[in-house]
Design a protein that fits this description.
This protein has a 3-stranded antiparallel sheet with strand order 2-1-3, with helices on one face. It is mostly helical. Helices cover about 45% and strands about 10% of the residues. The protein is globular, with a radius of gyration of 16 Å.
């Protein structure tokens, strides 16, 4: 079944968001935590299967987090990519509030 990346889903513990955002949120989690995460379609309330999530992630180029036994072996996060992704997915009112807070903080 082909899923629309902008389809509205509910990620357990995170709230409602687009399907692409939910999968991008789940894939960096450790495999055990990823198995516990639940994504439900808003339109019919059906939970997406782990296989479907992995298939969509690979189709959209979202890589899963490697299974790391030691935190020191974890790859260094690229903060610029993380922030860029957050800004791209954020709704406009949130960006406006963040901008205004930044202006207020820099003026003081």
């Amino acid at each position: 079944m082909m899923s629309d990346p902008e389809e509205s889903v509910r990620l357990q513990g995170f709230g409602e968001m687009s399907l692409r955002t939910a999968i991008a949120t789940v894939m960096p989690l450790a495999p055990r935590e990823r198995a516990e995460a639940a994504i439900f379609r808003v339109r019919d309330g059906v939970r997406l299967a782990e296989g479907e999530i992995a298939e969509l992630a690979s189709e959209w180029g979202i890589a899963p987090a490697p299974e790391v036994r030691s935190p020191k072996l974890a790859p260094e996060p690229h903060w610029s990519d993380i922030v860029r992704g957050m800004v791209r997915e954020a709704p406009l009112p949130s960006l406006m509030v963040a901008f205004l807070l930044g202006v207020l903080v820099t003026r003081r």
